Task: structure prediction
Amino acid sequence: MGFFLAKRVATFAATLVAASVLIFLVLEILPGNPAQVILGPDAPASAVEALARKLGVDRPPVERYLDWIGGLLRGDLGTSYAYGTPVGEIVAERLAVSLPLAILAMALTAALALSAGIFAAAKHNTGGDIGVMALSQLGIAIPSFWLAILLILFFAVELRWVSAGGFPGWSAGFWPALKALILPAVALAAVQAAILARITRSAVLEVSREDFVRTARAKGLSRGETLRRHVLRNAMIPIVTIMGLQFANLVAGAIVVENVFYLPGLGRLMFQSIANRDIAVIRDVVMLLAGMVVLVNFAVDLLYAAIDPRLRAQDV
Amino acid sequence: MSDLALSFRRRALGHASFAVGGALTLLLLLSAALSLAWTPWPVYELDIPHKLQLPSAAHWFGTDSLGRDVLSELLAGARTSILVGVIAVGIGVVLGTALGLIAAARRGWLEELVMRFSDFAFAFPAILSAIMLSALLGPGIVNSIVAIGIFNVPVFARLTRAQAKAVWAREFVLAARAAGKGGFRITLEHVLPNILSVIVVQATIQFATAILAEAALSYLGLGTQPPQPSWGRMLNEAQLQLLQAPRLAIFPGLAIALSVLGLNLLGDGLRDLLDPRLARKR
Result:
């Protein structure tokens, strides 16, 4: 187990370093002088030079990269060019919207997908199975931002149950804030649940055909108990992998849905920073998201080992 | 027609996913083709006095906030979706398949490098990469094609490598090597023809993803720029008129959903038809 863990931690660290180098290259080296990018192509040379000095981008790239990483490790994310405030503060503010939204959407996804997937597998090749599969095909085909617009049309414009967008902030109270996140979470969850339901169904079907499941049934276990104790435990590996990827996608990929609902989340911050050419914010947010993806993958790897002891043994 | 082709046609017509998916995809292609020659009204013509009209005999789907005919815009929007889909998936297929084939043939550090890179690119939310690239290169249809294309490369690289490795382990490849053929010739003459059907199936499904991505980018204002019609941008404009003309938000979304559904069903159907073993297992 010690070796397994050490190997995973090493891969985790190496991937983070690779990600940071790639992000630095793409955002800071490829476009040329960041000061020029911020000011636009028509800016006078003197202004570009002055800004370059102010931002410290006239120094060698390696030095700037090490500065950036050093800052990240100390928790200093730099200062936003557009807002003039520390990036860390802005990101924390936005995460207070994006993270609860992703968690809510993921909970909805898991509840919908697991029940629909297991139901479809149990009713394999019957009307129920075909119905769930047809619905999931539809769910995958519908763009999340269109569903978001339809939800606004129905629940905000027609029924007037919720507001059409915006976020009152957690200071306005738990319920009003949560209420503003429900429709976006449903719009995000519908697509993810459709994908996860298909994966759950095929994983459960695959495991149900194994010999040990027949043995479990033959020794007198009920269908429900076999499902819980043998089938689901084994089917969880692909399901957990996809859920990990989906969670990372929900935090980062909510950018379009956040825009539909005018939610001040991380995605919208990214979008606004791109419009403002606020490179410090873009760089840090992308790094944060990449870090989250890598962290989720790392956690999923560890979870695998917890679910399937054979994976631990293989690595020793 | 050969017996093989006849039997394929018989099975294809009896396959529900393939038939429905094929019909929807055909509708998408025909709409785009038709818009090249004819649209009910000129696509770029603004007609402010007749803005936000309800569906009528003159304007079947009504008019938008600038008086443009919605049906004409939808037909021309199909053209944009297909253009972006074909080129973006083309970039992914050509580069990704080449990388996957090289990784499978050469093994070693090269394979490791290709795989780790595609793992990373794969895990990174696609829309975020596309937005980042569009921001870097500037908004526009060409840059969104490049951004979506780059995202497609690791998808095909992973798939090709896995499939090609399985072919490399087969006996006929061993025989070809014994006959003195080199890695490049074996790849071209034996490996590629054996994995082509899997790539075609994946390309169909990625086409659907590309249509969704283009729509999302255009919705955000980073993709297709006005006046070029795009379903994503139509939705963006429709959201501003949600109270006065909610129907404007229905048609473009429906067009995207039906196209994506059609391509996904076609891909599923093709997979079953080209590999009957998979169909039986499902």
Q: What stands out?
A: The CA atoms of residues 146 and 187 of chain A lie 9 Å apart.
